[in-house]
Amino acid sequence: MSCSASTAPPPPPLAPAGEDGSGGAIGIALCLLSVLLLAIGITIQKYALTFIEPHVLLGDCCGTQSIRGPLARVPRTHAVWLAGLTVYFGGNGVFVLALAFTPASLAAALMATIVVANAALSRCVLHEELRRCDYHGGALILGGIAVTGWYAPAEVVSYDAPALARLLSPTSNPFGFGGWG
């Protein structure tokens, strides 16, 4: 067997930004959808652990035996918590997809909105109390995201192996990363 390098051209980018900048708008929308899914997943999990009685089984739903078999013996708390975890994982998958459409620096800044989304959902769904400092903190977070978004790079940069080697060479970075050899 021989191990030879493939000479096939690299695949095209997943979703290049159009001339109208629609790729960036799609990435921003996907990042915000990801934040919403993550916050909903966390809220569902906390709801399951806070409001659902741990001894109630899935088979005891609504006073009827609507669920039968081994699932009937699963505590409802576990099932609802697992549903929240599934929504949370879905949010992470959407975020990975969003990274194909928007620069990582902007996506990371948009992920910080999860703090504000969690506070809003916990207030509406879990009836948690928010204090004045919570609102001020949320405003500061959103202001920081706006500043970061304004100055974030407008294009998605892709690196190949030689470009990464140059970027991480001991002569090109002041922190000494890349001098492992």
Written account of the structure:
The chain is mainly alpha-helical. It has 6 helices and no strands. The longest helix is centred in the N-terminal third of the chain and has 30 residues, at 22-51. The radius of gyration is 23 Å and the shape is elongated. Residues 14-20 have low confidence and may be disordered.
Features:
6 helices; mainly alpha; 181 residues
Q: What oligomeric assembly is this protein in?
A: single chain
Structure annotation, total helices: 6
Radius of gyration: 23 Å
Largest sheet: none
Which helices and strands occur, and which strands form pairs?
Blueprint: H1 22-51, H2 76-98, H3 104-111, H4 114-124, H5 132-151, H6 161-167
Helix pairs in contact: 1-2, 1-3, 1-4, 3-5
Short account of what is shown:
The chain is mostly helical and 181 residues long. The chain has helices spanning 22-51, 76-98, 104-111, 114-124, 132-151, 161-167.
